[in-house]
Amino acid sequence: MASTEVLTRVALKSDLPFVLEMIHGLAEHHGDGSTVSLEQLEVEAHDWHHLLVATIDEKVVAYASLMPVGQLQFGVRGMDMHHLFVDKEHRGAGVGRALINASLELSKQLSCKYMTVGTHPDNTAAGEVYLAAGFERLPNAPRFRIGIDG
C-alpha cells in the first residue's frame, strides 16, 4: 500500500519540470497565460524565488513560491507566498497546510517577522485555509498576514 506521508523540502533542479507544469496549471485556473520556460524557472528558482515542494511517495504533488519583502523603515524582513498550488488529486489531504508550515519555518530561518499571501477574491476556500493556519485577513483586499516569532 502506498504511503500518504507528506514531505516538504526545498525544490531540486530535478523537481522543476513538475513545478513548471503546476505553474502552467495555476495560471490556466486563473484564466492567465503562462509563458515561463524551464530555463527561466531554473534562473528564478536559483536567484529570486524560494521554491518549496511537497512530495508523497517521492512524487511532487504541490509547490510554494516565496519572495522576500520588507519594511525598511522598521528594519523588518517579511516573506510573501507568491504561489501555493496543490494538484487536484491531493487537495484536502493536508498537503497545502504542510507547505504553509514549511514556508513559515523557512521564513523564520531567514529572520522574517511576518508572511503574507493573497488569494483570488472568489477563492474563499483558500482564504479559509489561511485563516485556519493562523493568518489574519488584511482590510480591503483578499490578503492575509501572519506574524513569525523568532
The low-pLDDT segments are none
Radius of gyration of CA atoms, rounded to a whole number: 15 Å
Shape: globular
Strand residue content: 25-35%
Q: Number of DSSP helices?
A: 4
Query: What's the CATH topology label?
Result: Aminopeptidase
In CATH, the architecture is 3-Layer(aba) Sandwich
CATH class: Alpha Beta
Helix-strand topology string: EHHEEEHEHEE
Strand adjacency order, main sheet: 1-2-3-4-5-7-6
Work out the oligomeric state of the chains in this entry: single chain
> What structural class do the secondary elements suggest?
alpha+beta
Explain how this protein is built.
The protein has 150 residues and is an alpha+beta fold. The protein has a single domain (6-147), classed as Gcn5-related N-acetyltransferase (GNAT) (Aminopeptidase, 3-Layer(aba) Sandwich). Helices cover 32% and strands 33% of the residues. The protein contains four helices and seven strands. A seven-stranded mixed sheet has the order 1-2-3-4-5-7-6. Strand 6 (136-137) and strand 7 form a beta hairpin.
